[in-house]
Amino acid sequence: MQESFYVGLDLGSSHCFQSIINSDGALCSARSFPTSEHHLRAAFANLQGDVRVHLEAGELSNWVASIIQPLVSEVVVSHPRSLAWIGKDSQKDDKVDARKLAELLRIGRVHRIFYQSDNSRQTFKYLVTHYEQLSREQARFKSKIKARLRTLGIIRKDSRLFSNNGQTVLLDEIESVSIKQMLTQSFAVLNQMLASFDSAKQAMIEFSQQFREVQLLQTAPGASHYYRLPLCCLSANSAPFFQQTQTLAVLSFGSYAARIQRQKISSSAT
After folding, report:
1. Domain boundaries of the chain, sorted by first residue
2. Is residue 133 over pLDDT 70?
3. pTM, rounded to two decimals
4. What class is the 4-106 domain?
5. 35, 17 in Cβ contact below 8 A?
């Protein structure tokens, strides 16, 4: 029978700390190593027995899990909010955190989350996140342009200002050559951002066609334009992607049906 080992892995952008304990809770090994694919493989390649790894969800967790998964029996990723013993401890360091991760796994006190091992789905999540980031950035830049115009006594509340015709009309109204040059430069930056935003949206839509989740989302009332939904929330690590879309579709349909029923009752009462 293989001996069981429990590994706590505290991830950092420059270094990781690995703590290994046995089934009795005795410390077998503890060490730090640089964060890289080579060093991660080296840290787990020669471990013998039934090796289970516990790490905290974060920016590096998916990447690290994909590297070490073939080298161990199991990789468990936990949400930070479920690790109060670690997060709320006033005395924190990598060595202590790694040991606690290992101990929590040994006693079965982990709240695992779903992490995406499918490269295509992970790529889709990156595309959605990129699209939403560009959306926020261009919205903020539009607000900055409007704020700058207000300091010049020019009040514009509608979005037509940012169309090609709207920009031309505005620039024709400006008499100062320096101000006109400043606004021209701002509009040039905005137009590039909008072009990148449209390109990112198109890439996201085209890539999404390979997933049945997208078709399911389109069956939910009011969700025909699926790219308007907060898809990066649906592809978060709390549950498998398809399971979440099923839940969304059911909830949306239930809400829609309830609204129609209330309308019927109201019509009958009148």
Report:
1. 4-106, 119-245
2. yes
3. 0.61
4. alpha beta
5. no
